[in-house]
Amino acid sequence: MGKNDGQSKVLAQNKKASHDYFIEDTYEAGMVLTGTEIKSLRNGRANIGDAFATIRNGEIHIHNMHISPFEQGNRHNPLDPTRTRKLLLHKSQINKLLGLSKQEGYSIVPLKIYVRNGYAKLLLGLGKGKKQYDKRESAAKRDAQRDIQRALREKQKIAR
């Protein structure tokens, strides 16, 4: 058995995704990376805040995902940190995503990068863009929930 069988370690997260989109469905995709990119990823040197996915010619690619160059890697011919990378999904999943993302207001959004069973995976979400009033409503709910939790903690402190 390997040292990390079945467990997953989150390497990068897109925190803006839940703020900007209603995530309706998620898909786990593999990534085509070079050796130095995976080493850099395992060191937590990735950013998917501005990344997005597109489908072209039956293949899905991720754009603007930043993976910093590996320090001990190839210094003479470094790769572009934001180059377009191919994602690995089943053909049926790609076709389903293609059909759903063609609808008005839907996007394919990267949610997080993690390692599962030794392989780097990217969690993609099918998101419907939030309008400004939806974002305010979400923030109000989050603040109300925080106030409730704070009040409960205060009540428990008094009860002791």
List keywords for this structure.
disordered N terminus; Small Protein B, Chain: A; alpha+beta; 32% helix; two-stranded antiparallel sheet; seven-stranded antiparallel β-sheet; 2 domains; 160 residues; 36% strand; single chain
CATH class membership of the largest domain: Mainly Beta
Tally of distinct domains: 2
The overall average pLDDT, rounded, is 81
Tally of contiguous helical segments: 4
- Total E-strand runs: 9
CATH superfamily of the largest domain: Small protein B
What is the H/E string?
A: EHEHEEEEEHEEH
**Major sheet, described briefly?**
7 strands, antiparallel
Gyration radius (Cα, Å) is 19 Å
Q: Give the overall silhouette.
A: globular
The CATH architecture of the largest domain: Beta Barrel
- Quote the beta fraction: 35-45%
| Class inferred from helices and paired strands | alpha+beta
Give the CATH topology of the largest domain.
Answer: Small Protein B, Chain: A
- How would you write the strand order of the largest sheet? 1-8-9-2-7-5-4
Report the uncertain regions: 1-5
What does this structure look like?
This protein is of the alpha+beta class and 160 residues long. The chain has 2 domains: 122 residues, Small protein B (Small Protein B, Chain: A, Beta Barrel); 30 residues. It is built from 4 helices and 9 strands, in the order E-H-E-H-E-E-E-E-E-H-E-E-H. It has a 7-stranded antiparallel β-sheet. The protein has a two-stranded antiparallel ribbon with strand order 3-6. A hairpin with a 2-residue loop joins strand 8 and strand 9. The chain is globular and about 65 Å long. The termini are far apart. It is found in: Cytoplasm. Pfam families: SmpB.
